[in-house]
Amino acid sequence: MARRILVVDDTPDQCALIARMLASAGYVTCTANSGPAAMKIIASDPALGAIILDLVMPDMDGFGVLAALKNSKTPIPVIAIAATEDDQVITSALKAGATDYVARPITPTRLLTCLANAIRLARFSLQPARQPFSPQPDPSRLLLPGTVSDRKYSPAMNLLAERARRAARSRHPVLIEGEPATGKSALAGEIYRAGPRAAKPALVMDCHSHGPACEATLFGTTDRPGLLARAQGATLILEEIGDLELA
């Protein structure tokens, strides 16, 4: 059975908007319009897979919910949301136990990427390794064409496949450049699946949509590791890396 996503926001219209975003990606959702209502659902619903949590609510706010989750040792990934990109708010949310942070106005790409990463991380951390980590890549797992003699594909595509195989064998960072909608993300996924880290999760970060949250998301805080630390031995895919600020 698919795990449900709990959307918590004191504004019903915002709950409905976020629920529609999630439903468009195939998620099943439930909603709560207050912190106490959210805690009742969390306590009674073992099928929850993640929480989208508004930080600013009357009575029990999002930080109160995060504190309650931490005290009860409830291992549910939480995406915190608020109408600010202030570094202090982002850092406070991550320190309080949020897995990631999304600033309003919320875009589907940003929210769905954060949610997929959070669920993948939670699933990986709760399960034993399905197989030993192999130091050797498996280029045969590439779905790209294999040889230039294959008449179904152009020489340019076969050259791309060979370069992808070499990239899969390498331990160095890989830069994929190209025009929009030309398959850069698909190629990155193929290289990941053919490499030695395929048994571990691939974390994806859209640098363009993260904005000021990039630093905290990548490097973490004093008591919470960032994506760079959590991706050790695994794979980190940075989309739109050219949009990262240099300073």
Structural write-up:
- There is one protein chain.
- With 247 residues, this protein is an alpha/beta fold.
- It is 41% helix and 16% strand.
- It has ten helices and nine strands.
- It has helices spanning 12-24, 35-44, 62-71, 87-96, 108-126, 155-169, 184-194, 207-210, 214-219, 227-230; strands at 4-8, 28-32, 48-54, 78-82, 100-103, 202-206, 220-221, 224-225, 235-239.
- The strands form three sheets. A five-stranded parallel sheet has the order 2-1-3-4-5, sandwiched between helices.
- Helix 2 packs parallel to helix 3 (62-71).
- It is elongated.
- The N and C termini lie far apart (45 Å).
- The model is unreliable at 126-139 and 145-151 (pLDDT under 50).
Low-confidence stretches: 126-139, 145-151
Largest sheet report: 5 strands, parallel
How confident is the prediction overall: mean pLDDT? Answer: 80
Give the end-to-end Cα distance, rounded to a whole number of Å. 45 Å
Shape: elongated
- From the helix content, strand content and strand pairing, which structural class follows? alpha/beta
Number of strands: 9
Q: If strands are numbered along the chain, what order do they take across the biggest sheet?
A: 2-1-3-4-5
How many helices? The count is: 10
**Rg (C-alpha, Å):** 20 Å
Beta-strand level of the residues, as a percent range? 15-25%
Percent in helix = 40-55%
Order of helices and strands: EHEHEHEHEHHHEHHEEHE
Layout of helices and strands, plus pairs?
Elements: E1 4-8, H1 12-24, E2 28-32, H2 35-44, E3 48-54, H3 62-71, E4 78-82, H4 87-96, E5 100-103, H5 108-126, H6 155-169, H7 184-194, E6 202-206, H8 207-210, H9 214-219, E7 220-221, E8 224-225, H10 227-230, E9 235-239
Parallel strand pairs: 1-2, 1-3, 3-4, 4-5, 6-9
Antiparallel strand pairs: 7-8
